[in-house]
Design a protein that fits this description.
CATH topology of the largest domain in chain B: Alpha-Beta Plaits
Shape of chain A: globular
Number of domains of chain B: 2
Strand content of chain B: 25-35%
Mean pLDDT of chain A: 98
Radius of gyration of chain B: 16 Å
Number of helices of chain A: 7
Radius of gyration of chain A: 22 Å
Bound molecules: iron/sulfur cluster
Distance between the termini of chain B: 16 Å
CATH architecture of the largest domain in chain B: 2-Layer Sandwich
Largest interface: A-B, 32 and 22 residues
Oligomer: heterodimer
Helix content of chain B: 10-25%
Strand content of chain A: 25-35%
Number of strands of chain B: 8
CATH superfamily of the largest domain in chain B: ACT domain
Structural class of chain B: alpha+beta
Low-confidence stretches of chain B: none
Protein backbone atom coordinates (compact mmCIF):
# COMPACT_ATOMS: atom_id res chain seq x y z
CA UNK A 1 0.00 0.00 0.00
CA UNK A 2 1.27 3.44 -0.99
CA UNK A 3 -0.27 6.88 -0.94
CA UNK A 4 -0.06 9.54 -3.62
CA UNK A 5 1.86 11.73 -1.15
CA UNK A 6 4.48 9.00 -0.76
CA UNK A 7 4.76 8.62 -4.52
CA UNK A 8 5.17 12.39 -4.88
CA UNK A 9 7.97 12.32 -2.29
CA UNK A 10 9.73 9.73 -4.44
CA UNK A 11 9.19 11.88 -7.54
CA UNK A 12 10.79 14.85 -5.76
CA UNK A 13 13.71 12.73 -4.58
CA UNK A 14 14.17 11.36 -8.08
CA UNK A 15 13.81 7.69 -7.18
CA UNK A 16 10.33 7.03 -8.46
CA UNK A 17 9.78 3.93 -10.61
CA UNK A 18 7.61 4.64 -13.66
CA UNK A 19 6.63 2.22 -16.40
CA UNK A 20 4.28 2.60 -19.34
CA UNK A 21 1.12 0.49 -19.44
CA UNK A 22 2.78 -1.69 -22.08
CA UNK A 23 6.00 -2.15 -20.12
CA UNK A 24 4.21 -3.08 -16.91
CA UNK A 25 2.70 -6.17 -18.55
CA UNK A 26 6.14 -7.75 -18.94
CA UNK A 27 7.16 -6.91 -15.38
CA UNK A 28 4.03 -8.47 -13.92
CA UNK A 29 4.56 -11.59 -16.01
CA UNK A 30 8.12 -11.86 -14.80
CA UNK A 31 7.72 -10.98 -11.12
CA UNK A 32 4.07 -11.49 -10.31
CA UNK A 33 1.58 -8.94 -9.01
CA UNK A 34 2.86 -8.80 -5.43
CA UNK A 35 6.49 -8.05 -6.15
CA UNK A 36 5.70 -5.80 -9.11
CA UNK A 37 3.31 -3.72 -6.97
CA UNK A 38 6.14 -3.06 -4.52
CA UNK A 39 8.51 -2.06 -7.30
CA UNK A 40 6.35 0.16 -9.52
CA UNK A 41 5.04 3.55 -8.35
CA UNK A 42 3.40 4.93 -11.45
CA UNK A 43 2.09 3.50 -14.71
CA UNK A 44 1.63 5.89 -17.62
CA UNK A 45 -1.22 5.41 -20.09
CA UNK A 46 -1.94 7.31 -23.28
CA UNK A 47 -4.06 7.68 -26.35
CA UNK A 48 -3.96 9.71 -29.57
CA UNK A 49 -6.90 9.85 -31.90
CA UNK A 50 -9.75 11.88 -33.34
CA UNK A 51 -11.99 13.20 -30.56
CA UNK A 52 -14.90 15.17 -31.94
CA UNK A 53 -16.25 16.79 -28.79
CA UNK A 54 -13.18 18.97 -28.39
CA UNK A 55 -13.01 22.73 -28.53
CA UNK A 56 -11.36 25.88 -27.29
CA UNK A 57 -12.57 28.98 -25.57
CA UNK A 58 -10.55 32.14 -25.73
CA UNK A 59 -10.64 35.82 -24.83
CA UNK A 60 -9.40 38.20 -27.51
CA UNK A 61 -9.06 41.32 -25.31
CA UNK A 62 -11.17 44.42 -25.85
CA UNK A 63 -10.85 46.40 -29.07
CA UNK A 64 -10.77 50.21 -29.15
CA UNK A 65 -13.55 51.25 -29.53
CA UNK A 66 -15.20 48.24 -27.95
CA UNK A 67 -17.21 45.61 -29.80
CA UNK A 68 -19.63 43.12 -28.27
CA UNK A 69 -19.14 39.72 -29.90
CA UNK A 70 -21.86 38.16 -27.76
CA UNK A 71 -24.96 37.81 -29.89
CA UNK A 72 -23.02 38.80 -33.00
CA UNK A 73 -21.05 36.77 -35.51
CA UNK A 74 -17.42 35.74 -35.55
CA UNK A 75 -15.14 33.52 -37.62
CA UNK A 76 -11.57 32.49 -36.92
CA UNK A 77 -9.61 31.31 -39.93
CA UNK A 78 -12.92 31.42 -41.81
CA UNK A 79 -14.55 28.98 -39.38
CA UNK A 80 -17.56 30.17 -37.34
CA UNK A 81 -17.16 30.54 -33.59
CA UNK A 82 -19.87 30.41 -30.97
CA UNK A 83 -20.82 33.94 -29.87
CA UNK A 84 -23.26 33.21 -27.09
CA UNK A 85 -20.83 34.46 -24.43
CA UNK A 86 -19.72 37.90 -23.31
CA UNK A 87 -18.17 40.71 -25.37
CA UNK A 88 -14.67 39.31 -25.92
CA UNK A 89 -15.11 35.57 -25.34
CA UNK A 90 -15.48 33.01 -28.11
CA UNK A 91 -15.79 29.25 -28.30
CA UNK A 92 -14.70 27.19 -31.26
CA UNK A 93 -15.59 23.52 -31.64
CA UNK A 94 -13.49 20.98 -33.51
CA UNK A 95 -16.33 20.04 -35.89
CA UNK A 96 -17.12 23.59 -37.03
CA UNK A 97 -17.00 24.22 -40.78
CA UNK A 98 -16.73 27.38 -42.88
CA UNK A 99 -20.19 28.51 -44.01
CA UNK A 100 -19.16 28.12 -47.64
CA UNK A 101 -17.75 24.60 -47.28
CA UNK A 102 -19.60 22.41 -49.82
CA UNK A 103 -19.97 19.73 -47.12
CA UNK A 104 -21.49 16.59 -48.63
CA UNK A 105 -23.16 18.33 -51.56
CA UNK A 106 -20.31 16.93 -53.61
CA UNK A 107 -20.41 13.46 -52.10
CA UNK A 108 -18.26 12.38 -50.41
CA UNK A 109 -17.16 15.80 -49.17
CA UNK A 110 -13.47 16.41 -48.56
CA UNK A 111 -13.73 18.60 -45.46
CA UNK A 112 -10.24 20.00 -45.86
CA UNK A 113 -10.36 22.69 -43.19
CA UNK A 114 -12.47 23.32 -40.13
CA UNK A 115 -12.45 23.86 -36.38
CA UNK A 116 -9.91 21.13 -35.64
CA UNK A 117 -7.48 22.65 -38.14
CA UNK A 118 -7.96 26.15 -36.72
CA UNK A 119 -7.14 24.86 -33.23
CA UNK A 120 -4.07 23.13 -34.61
CA UNK A 121 -2.91 26.26 -36.44
CA UNK A 122 -3.57 28.48 -33.44
CA UNK A 123 -1.64 26.28 -31.03
CA UNK A 124 1.21 26.11 -33.56
CA UNK A 125 1.58 29.89 -33.34
CA UNK A 126 0.15 30.83 -36.73
CA UNK A 127 -1.51 34.21 -37.22
CA UNK A 128 -5.20 33.72 -38.00
CA UNK A 129 -7.79 36.17 -39.28
CA UNK A 130 -10.58 36.99 -36.86
CA UNK A 131 -13.59 38.55 -38.52
CA UNK A 132 -16.51 39.65 -36.38
CA UNK A 133 -19.57 41.78 -36.30
CA UNK A 134 -21.74 43.03 -33.46
CA UNK A 135 -25.02 44.92 -33.41
CA UNK A 136 -23.65 47.94 -31.55
CA UNK A 137 -24.71 49.24 -28.14
CA UNK A 138 -24.07 52.43 -26.22
CA UNK A 139 -21.25 50.75 -24.31
CA UNK A 140 -20.01 48.59 -27.23
CA UNK A 141 -20.49 50.86 -30.27
CA UNK A 142 -18.27 49.09 -32.79
CA UNK A 143 -19.98 46.93 -35.39
CA UNK A 144 -17.17 45.35 -37.38
CA UNK A 145 -13.76 43.94 -36.67
CA UNK A 146 -11.18 42.28 -38.88
CA UNK A 147 -7.75 41.55 -37.49
CA UNK A 148 -5.01 38.97 -37.25
CA UNK A 149 -4.78 37.29 -33.92
CA UNK A 150 -2.07 35.11 -32.46
CA UNK A 151 -2.31 32.76 -29.50
CA UNK A 152 0.38 34.70 -27.63
CA UNK A 153 -1.76 37.84 -27.66
CA UNK A 154 -4.91 36.19 -26.38
CA UNK A 155 -5.72 36.64 -22.70
CA UNK A 156 -6.80 33.07 -22.21
CA UNK A 157 -6.84 30.21 -24.68
CA UNK A 158 -8.15 27.04 -23.11
CA UNK A 159 -8.74 23.63 -24.59
CA UNK A 160 -11.98 22.31 -23.17
CA UNK A 161 -13.09 18.94 -24.43
CA UNK A 162 -16.45 17.79 -23.21
CA UNK A 163 -15.94 14.21 -24.28
CA UNK A 164 -12.55 12.58 -24.74
CA UNK A 165 -10.81 9.37 -23.89
CA UNK A 166 -13.58 6.89 -24.63
CA UNK A 167 -13.17 3.79 -22.55
CA UNK A 168 -13.31 1.24 -25.38
CA UNK A 169 -15.05 1.75 -28.70
CA UNK A 170 -16.90 0.06 -31.55
CA UNK A 171 -15.21 -1.77 -34.38
CA UNK A 172 -16.87 -0.43 -37.51
CA UNK A 173 -17.72 -2.56 -40.52
CA UNK A 174 -20.03 -2.35 -43.52
CA UNK A 175 -22.17 -5.26 -44.70
CA UNK A 176 -23.96 -3.36 -47.46
CA UNK A 177 -22.92 -3.52 -51.09
CA UNK A 178 -21.63 0.01 -51.36
CA UNK A 179 -18.73 1.93 -49.84
CA UNK A 180 -19.72 4.19 -46.95
CA UNK A 181 -17.96 7.23 -45.52
CA UNK A 182 -18.21 7.50 -41.75
CA UNK A 183 -16.55 9.06 -38.74
CA UNK A 184 -14.87 5.66 -38.44
CA UNK A 185 -13.30 6.16 -41.85
CA UNK A 186 -14.02 4.72 -45.28
CA UNK A 187 -15.73 1.36 -44.88
CA UNK A 188 -15.67 -0.89 -47.89
CA UNK A 189 -18.71 -2.86 -48.89
CA UNK A 190 -19.29 -6.50 -47.93
CA UNK A 191 -16.98 -6.55 -44.90
CA UNK A 192 -14.09 -5.14 -46.91
CA UNK A 193 -12.37 -3.70 -43.85
CA UNK A 194 -12.86 -3.09 -40.13
CA UNK A 195 -11.83 0.10 -38.35
CA UNK A 196 -11.27 0.48 -34.62
CA UNK A 197 -10.30 3.42 -32.44
CA UNK A 198 -8.60 2.68 -29.13
CA UNK A 199 -5.05 2.27 -27.95
CA UNK A 200 -6.19 -0.97 -26.25
CA UNK A 201 -3.88 -2.00 -23.42
CA UNK A 202 -2.26 1.45 -23.41
CA UNK A 203 -5.53 3.38 -23.26
CA UNK A 204 -6.10 5.34 -20.00
CA UNK A 205 -9.53 4.17 -18.89
CA UNK A 206 -8.90 0.56 -19.88
CA UNK A 207 -6.08 0.56 -17.31
CA UNK A 208 -8.30 1.92 -14.56
CA UNK A 209 -11.54 0.26 -15.58
CA UNK A 210 -13.48 1.13 -12.42
CA UNK A 211 -12.08 4.69 -12.10
CA UNK A 212 -10.35 4.01 -8.80
CA UNK A 213 -7.64 6.63 -9.40
CA UNK A 214 -8.76 8.69 -12.41
CA UNK A 215 -11.40 11.19 -11.32
CA UNK A 216 -12.28 14.85 -11.23
CA UNK A 217 -9.13 16.87 -10.63
CA UNK A 218 -6.68 14.27 -11.92
CA UNK A 219 -3.70 16.00 -13.48
CA UNK A 220 -2.92 14.74 -16.97
CA UNK A 221 -0.89 15.44 -20.06
CA UNK A 222 -3.21 17.10 -22.59
CA UNK A 223 -2.02 18.10 -26.03
CA UNK A 224 1.53 18.01 -24.68
CA UNK A 225 0.78 20.47 -21.84
CA UNK A 226 -0.67 20.08 -18.39
CA UNK A 227 -4.40 19.46 -18.19
CA UNK A 228 -6.97 18.19 -15.75
CA UNK A 229 -9.99 15.96 -15.73
CA UNK A 230 -12.75 18.51 -15.14
CA UNK A 231 -15.78 16.21 -15.08
CA UNK A 232 -16.94 12.96 -16.59
CA UNK A 233 -17.55 13.33 -20.29
CA UNK A 234 -20.85 13.51 -22.13
CA UNK A 235 -22.42 10.13 -22.95
CA UNK A 236 -20.58 8.65 -19.95
CA UNK A 237 -22.01 5.15 -19.67
CA UNK A 238 -20.24 3.09 -17.00
CA UNK A 239 -22.92 0.43 -16.43
CA UNK A 240 -22.26 -1.69 -19.52
CA UNK A 241 -21.42 -5.39 -19.52
CA UNK A 242 -17.86 -6.12 -18.38
CA UNK A 243 -15.37 -8.98 -18.35
CA UNK A 244 -14.69 -10.68 -15.03
CA UNK A 245 -11.72 -8.31 -14.65
CA UNK A 246 -14.01 -5.30 -14.83
CA UNK A 247 -13.08 -4.25 -18.37
CA UNK A 248 -16.11 -2.95 -20.30
CA UNK A 249 -16.99 -4.83 -23.48
CA UNK A 250 -18.64 -1.77 -25.00
CA UNK A 251 -17.98 1.98 -25.15
CA UNK A 252 -18.33 3.04 -21.51
CA UNK A 253 -16.78 5.92 -19.54
CA UNK A 254 -15.70 9.23 -21.05
CA UNK A 255 -13.87 12.23 -19.59
CA UNK A 256 -14.22 15.99 -19.91
CA UNK A 257 -10.76 17.54 -20.02
CA UNK A 258 -9.40 21.03 -19.65
CA UNK A 259 -5.99 22.63 -20.04
CA UNK A 260 -4.08 25.76 -21.03
CA UNK A 261 -3.82 25.75 -24.83
CA UNK A 262 -0.83 28.07 -24.61
CA UNK A 263 1.29 25.28 -23.18
CA UNK A 264 0.22 22.70 -25.73
CA UNK A 265 1.70 21.77 -29.08
CA UNK A 266 0.55 21.21 -32.63
CA UNK A 267 2.30 17.88 -32.46
CA UNK A 268 -0.41 16.54 -30.15
CA UNK A 269 -3.40 18.52 -31.41
CA UNK A 270 -3.89 17.87 -35.09
CA UNK A 271 -6.82 18.90 -37.28
CA UNK A 272 -8.15 15.92 -39.19
CA UNK A 273 -10.47 15.45 -42.17
CA UNK A 274 -12.75 12.45 -42.44
CA UNK A 275 -13.87 12.17 -46.04
CA UNK A 276 -17.65 12.23 -46.37
CA UNK A 277 -18.04 12.95 -42.67
CA UNK A 278 -16.42 16.18 -41.51
CA UNK A 279 -13.52 17.65 -39.61
CA UNK A 280 -12.33 16.91 -36.12
CA UNK A 281 -9.35 17.23 -33.84
CA UNK A 282 -6.94 14.45 -32.97
CA UNK A 283 -5.93 14.83 -29.35
CA UNK A 284 -3.00 13.35 -27.49
CA UNK A 285 -3.68 12.47 -23.85
CA UNK A 286 -1.46 10.90 -21.21
CA UNK A 287 -2.78 9.89 -17.79
CA UNK A 288 -0.63 8.63 -14.92
CA UNK A 289 -1.97 5.89 -12.68
CA UNK A 290 -0.50 5.80 -9.17
CA UNK A 291 0.11 2.21 -8.10
CA UNK A 292 -1.47 2.48 -4.66
CA UNK A 293 -1.96 -1.25 -4.20
CA UNK A 294 -1.90 -4.63 -5.89
CA UNK A 295 -5.43 -4.32 -7.22
CA UNK A 296 -4.62 -1.14 -9.13
CA UNK A 297 -1.45 -2.67 -10.51
CA UNK A 298 -3.39 -5.69 -11.70
CA UNK A 299 -5.74 -3.43 -13.65
CA UNK A 300 -2.81 -1.74 -15.38
CA UNK A 301 -1.39 -5.12 -16.41
CA UNK A 302 -4.37 -5.65 -18.72
CA UNK A 303 -3.40 -7.08 -22.10
CA UNK A 304 -4.82 -6.47 -25.55
CA UNK A 305 -6.23 -10.00 -25.62
CA UNK A 306 -8.22 -9.33 -22.45
CA UNK A 307 -10.02 -6.32 -23.93
CA UNK A 308 -13.05 -7.00 -26.09
CA UNK A 309 -14.80 -4.62 -28.46
CA UNK A 310 -18.11 -4.94 -30.29
CA UNK A 311 -18.26 -5.21 -34.08
CA UNK A 312 -20.96 -2.85 -35.34
CA UNK A 313 -22.43 -2.55 -38.83
CA UNK A 314 -22.24 1.12 -39.83
CA UNK A 315 -24.27 0.59 -43.00
CA UNK A 316 -27.53 0.03 -41.12
CA UNK A 317 -27.39 -0.83 -37.41
CA UNK A 318 -25.40 2.23 -36.34
CA UNK A 319 -27.31 4.86 -38.38
CA UNK A 320 -30.67 3.30 -37.44
CA UNK A 321 -29.60 3.07 -33.79
CA UNK A 322 -30.21 -0.67 -33.63
CA UNK A 323 -28.50 -2.25 -30.66
CA UNK A 324 -27.12 -5.12 -32.66
CA UNK A 325 -23.56 -6.33 -32.83
CA UNK A 326 -21.91 -8.88 -35.06
CA UNK A 327 -19.79 -10.23 -32.23
CA UNK A 328 -16.88 -9.28 -30.01
CA UNK A 329 -13.22 -9.25 -30.96
CA UNK A 330 -10.15 -8.48 -28.86
CA UNK A 331 -7.48 -5.84 -29.40
CA UNK A 332 -4.71 -8.36 -30.00
CA UNK A 333 -6.71 -9.59 -32.99
CA UNK A 334 -7.47 -6.04 -34.10
CA UNK A 335 -3.84 -4.96 -33.87
CA UNK A 336 -2.67 -8.06 -35.78
CA UNK A 337 -4.15 -6.53 -38.93
CA UNK A 338 -6.98 -9.03 -39.45
CA UNK A 339 -10.10 -10.22 -37.68
CA UNK A 340 -12.60 -12.86 -38.62
CA UNK A 341 -16.26 -11.92 -39.07
CA UNK A 342 -18.83 -14.42 -40.27
CA UNK A 343 -15.99 -16.70 -41.35
CA UNK A 344 -14.42 -13.97 -43.46
CA UNK A 345 -10.89 -12.66 -42.91
CA UNK A 346 -11.27 -8.88 -42.71
CA UNK A 347 -8.30 -6.46 -42.71
CA UNK A 348 -8.27 -3.98 -39.81
CA UNK A 349 -7.13 -0.38 -39.48
CA UNK A 350 -6.91 1.86 -36.47
CA UNK A 351 -8.02 5.47 -36.33
CA UNK A 352 -6.01 6.12 -33.21
CA UNK A 353 -2.24 6.05 -33.47
CA UNK A 354 -0.40 3.61 -31.24
CA UNK A 355 2.92 5.13 -32.24
CA UNK A 356 1.82 8.57 -31.01
CA UNK A 357 0.23 7.07 -27.88
CA UNK A 358 3.52 5.35 -27.04
CA UNK A 359 5.38 8.62 -27.47
CA UNK A 360 2.96 10.35 -25.09
CA UNK A 361 3.27 7.58 -22.48
CA UNK A 362 7.05 7.97 -22.72
CA UNK A 363 6.97 11.76 -22.49
CA UNK A 364 4.78 11.56 -19.40
CA UNK A 365 7.06 8.94 -17.90
CA UNK A 366 10.03 11.23 -18.55
CA UNK A 367 8.36 14.24 -16.94
CA UNK A 368 7.43 12.26 -13.84
CA UNK A 369 10.92 10.82 -13.50
CA UNK A 370 12.53 14.22 -13.88
CA UNK A 371 10.39 15.60 -11.06
CA UNK A 372 8.52 17.97 -13.35
CA UNK A 373 5.13 16.29 -13.05
CA UNK A 374 3.61 15.48 -9.65
CA UNK A 375 0.51 13.37 -9.24
CA UNK A 376 -2.78 14.59 -7.85
CA UNK A 377 -5.47 12.99 -5.81
CA UNK A 378 -8.88 13.06 -7.51
CA UNK A 379 -11.13 15.49 -5.65
CA UNK A 380 -14.24 13.51 -6.59
CA UNK A 381 -14.89 10.17 -8.25
CA UNK A 382 -16.69 9.88 -11.56
CA UNK A 383 -19.81 7.67 -11.66
CA UNK A 384 -18.75 4.03 -11.80
CA UNK A 385 -20.41 0.62 -12.15
CA UNK A 386 -22.43 0.99 -8.96
CA UNK A 387 -23.84 4.41 -9.89
CA UNK A 388 -26.75 3.32 -12.11
CA UNK A 389 -25.62 6.22 -14.32
CA UNK A 390 -26.61 5.62 -17.95
CA UNK A 391 -26.36 7.41 -21.25
CA UNK A 392 -29.88 7.65 -22.63
CA UNK A 393 -30.97 7.89 -26.25
CA UNK A 394 -33.10 10.84 -27.29
CA UNK A 395 -36.76 10.46 -26.51
CA UNK A 396 -38.57 12.36 -29.26
CA UNK A 397 -41.88 13.92 -28.36
CA UNK A 398 -44.48 15.22 -30.72
CA UNK A 399 -44.42 19.00 -31.06
CA UNK B 1 -12.83 4.29 -57.34
CA UNK B 2 -11.22 7.28 -59.01
CA UNK B 3 -10.18 6.93 -62.61
CA UNK B 4 -6.79 5.31 -62.81
CA UNK B 5 -4.30 5.70 -65.56
CA UNK B 6 -2.00 2.79 -66.16
CA UNK B 7 0.74 1.90 -68.57
CA UNK B 8 0.77 -1.65 -69.92
CA UNK B 9 3.82 -3.17 -71.57
CA UNK B 10 3.01 -6.20 -73.70
CA UNK B 11 5.84 -8.53 -74.61
CA UNK B 12 5.96 -9.64 -78.26
CA UNK B 13 4.14 -12.96 -77.77
CA UNK B 14 1.15 -11.22 -76.15
CA UNK B 15 0.52 -8.48 -78.65
CA UNK B 16 -2.00 -10.52 -80.60
CA UNK B 17 -3.94 -11.89 -77.64
CA UNK B 18 -7.33 -10.39 -76.73
CA UNK B 19 -6.11 -9.30 -73.32
CA UNK B 20 -7.76 -5.92 -73.04
CA UNK B 21 -11.00 -7.41 -74.26
CA UNK B 22 -10.94 -9.90 -71.40
CA UNK B 23 -9.88 -7.27 -68.93
CA UNK B 24 -12.93 -5.23 -69.76
CA UNK B 25 -15.37 -8.09 -70.11
CA UNK B 26 -14.35 -10.34 -67.22
CA UNK B 27 -13.61 -7.63 -64.70
CA UNK B 28 -16.33 -5.20 -65.54
CA UNK B 29 -14.02 -2.23 -66.04
CA UNK B 30 -14.70 0.80 -68.19
CA UNK B 31 -11.73 2.03 -70.18
CA UNK B 32 -10.38 4.76 -72.40
CA UNK B 33 -7.34 4.23 -74.57
CA UNK B 34 -5.06 7.21 -74.15
CA UNK B 35 -2.22 5.85 -76.22
CA UNK B 36 -1.43 2.64 -78.09
CA UNK B 37 1.64 1.70 -80.04
CA UNK B 38 3.72 -1.24 -81.14
CA UNK B 39 7.40 -0.49 -81.17
CA UNK B 40 9.90 -1.79 -83.76
CA UNK B 41 10.67 -4.78 -81.56
CA UNK B 42 7.00 -5.67 -81.82
CA UNK B 43 6.37 -4.98 -78.14
CA UNK B 44 3.11 -3.25 -77.32
CA UNK B 45 2.56 -0.22 -75.15
CA UNK B 46 -0.90 0.76 -74.05
CA UNK B 47 -1.93 3.60 -71.79
CA UNK B 48 -5.39 3.10 -70.39
CA UNK B 49 -7.70 4.99 -68.14
CA UNK B 50 -9.78 2.53 -66.13
CA UNK B 51 -12.86 2.92 -64.00
CA UNK B 52 -14.72 0.31 -61.98
CA UNK B 53 -14.97 -1.33 -58.56
CA UNK B 54 -11.75 -1.48 -56.53
CA UNK B 55 -12.00 -5.26 -56.14
CA UNK B 56 -12.48 -5.75 -59.87
CA UNK B 57 -9.62 -3.44 -60.59
CA UNK B 58 -7.34 -5.38 -58.29
CA UNK B 59 -8.33 -8.68 -59.88
CA UNK B 60 -7.96 -7.20 -63.35
CA UNK B 61 -4.43 -6.05 -62.59
CA UNK B 62 -3.61 -9.49 -61.22
CA UNK B 63 -4.93 -11.07 -64.38
CA UNK B 64 -2.72 -8.80 -66.51
CA UNK B 65 0.33 -9.62 -64.46
CA UNK B 66 -0.36 -13.35 -64.66
CA UNK B 67 -0.60 -13.07 -68.41
CA UNK B 68 2.86 -11.53 -68.44
CA UNK B 69 1.90 -7.90 -68.99
CA UNK B 70 4.06 -5.42 -67.14
CA UNK B 71 1.79 -2.92 -65.36
CA UNK B 72 2.94 0.49 -64.27
CA UNK B 73 0.94 3.41 -62.95
CA UNK B 74 1.07 6.39 -65.24
CA UNK B 75 1.55 8.63 -62.29
CA UNK B 76 4.43 7.59 -60.11
CA UNK B 77 3.83 10.62 -58.00
CA UNK B 78 2.13 9.29 -54.93
CA UNK B 79 4.10 10.25 -51.88
CA UNK B 80 3.89 10.03 -48.13
CA UNK B 81 4.73 13.00 -45.97
CA UNK B 82 6.41 11.43 -42.94
CA UNK B 83 6.05 14.69 -41.00
CA UNK B 84 2.29 14.48 -41.25
CA UNK B 85 1.79 10.73 -40.97
CA UNK B 86 0.85 9.62 -37.46
CA UNK B 87 0.98 5.90 -38.33
CA UNK B 88 -2.68 5.42 -37.56
CA UNK B 89 -3.02 2.68 -40.24
CA UNK B 90 -6.30 4.00 -41.70
CA UNK B 91 -4.82 3.68 -45.19
CA UNK B 92 -3.39 0.19 -44.71
CA UNK B 93 -6.55 -1.86 -45.08
CA UNK B 94 -7.80 0.32 -47.93
CA UNK B 95 -4.80 0.04 -50.21
CA UNK B 96 -5.63 -2.46 -52.97
CA UNK B 97 -2.01 -3.48 -53.55
CA UNK B 98 -0.49 -3.60 -50.07
CA UNK B 99 1.68 -0.64 -50.91
CA UNK B 100 1.00 0.65 -47.41
CA UNK B 101 2.17 -1.68 -44.75
CA UNK B 102 2.43 -1.58 -40.98
CA UNK B 103 5.72 -2.65 -39.50
CA UNK B 104 4.59 -5.16 -36.86
CA UNK B 105 7.39 -4.15 -34.48
CA UNK B 106 7.51 -0.37 -34.56
CA UNK B 107 3.94 0.13 -35.74
CA UNK B 108 5.28 2.50 -38.39
CA UNK B 109 3.36 2.60 -41.67
CA UNK B 110 5.63 2.22 -44.67
CA UNK B 111 4.84 3.32 -48.20
CA UNK B 112 6.24 0.91 -50.76
CA UNK B 113 6.19 2.98 -53.89
CA UNK B 114 6.94 0.13 -56.27
CA UNK B 115 3.67 -1.55 -55.36
CA UNK B 116 1.56 1.60 -55.66
CA UNK B 117 -0.82 1.82 -58.61
CA UNK B 118 -1.81 5.43 -57.86
CA UNK B 119 -5.47 4.61 -57.24
CA UNK B 120 -5.74 7.60 -54.92
CA UNK B 121 -7.80 5.98 -52.20
CA UNK B 122 -5.24 6.62 -49.46
CA UNK B 123 -5.12 10.28 -50.48
CA UNK B 124 -8.83 10.54 -49.92
CA UNK B 125 -8.83 8.46 -46.75
CA UNK B 126 -5.84 9.81 -44.81
CA UNK B 127 -7.32 12.05 -42.08
CA UNK B 128 -4.00 13.84 -41.68
CA UNK B 129 -3.40 14.77 -45.32
CA UNK B 130 -0.18 12.75 -45.32
CA UNK B 131 -0.66 11.04 -48.69
CA UNK B 132 -0.30 13.16 -51.80
CA UNK B 133 -0.84 12.41 -55.46
CA UNK B 134 0.25 14.56 -58.36
CA UNK B 135 -0.77 13.98 -61.93
S1 LIG C 1 -3.82 7.17 -43.01
FE1 LIG C 1 -2.36 8.84 -43.19
S2 LIG C 1 -1.61 9.20 -41.11
FE2 LIG C 1 -2.62 7.20 -41.12
S3 LIG C 1 -0.95 5.77 -41.51
FE3 LIG C 1 -1.84 6.24 -43.50
S4 LIG C 1 -0.62 7.96 -44.25
FE4 LIG C 1 -0.19 7.78 -42.09
S1 LIG D 1 -2.52 5.35 -54.20
FE1 LIG D 1 -2.44 4.74 -52.05
S2 LIG D 1 -4.05 3.22 -51.82
FE2 LIG D 1 -3.70 3.43 -54.01
S3 LIG D 1 -2.18 1.86 -54.49
FE3 LIG D 1 -1.00 3.71 -54.05
S4 LIG D 1 -0.56 3.56 -51.88
FE4 LIG D 1 -2.19 2.08 -52.27
Amino acid sequence: MKTIQEINEKIKKGNVVVLTAEEVIGLVEEKGIKEAAQTVDVVTTATFGPMCSSGIYFNIGHSKPRIKLGGGHATLGGVPCYTGLAAADLFLGANALPDDDPRNSVYPGEFRYGGGHVISDLVSGKDLVLEASGYGTDCYPRKNLKTYINIKDLNEAVLYNIRNCYQNYNVAINTSDKVIYTYMGILRQKLGNANYCSAGALSPLLNDPLYKTIGIGTKILLGGGVGFVSWWGTQHNPCVERTNKGVPKYPAATLALIGDLKNMSGQWLIGTSMVGYGVTLSVGIGIPIPILNEEILEYTAVKDEDILAPVVDYSKDYPQRENRILGLVNYAQLKSGHIEIKGKKVPTSSLSSIRKAREIADVLKGRIKSGEFLLTEAVEKIPSVDSKYRSKPLKERKV
Amino acid sequence: MERIKIVLHFPKQLVDKPIVYRLVKDFNLEFNILKAEVNPNEEGLLILELKGQDQDYKKGIEYLKNEGVRVQPLSQDVSMDRQRCVDCTVCVSLCPTEALEKDPQSGEVKFIKEKCIACGICVKACPYGAMKIEF
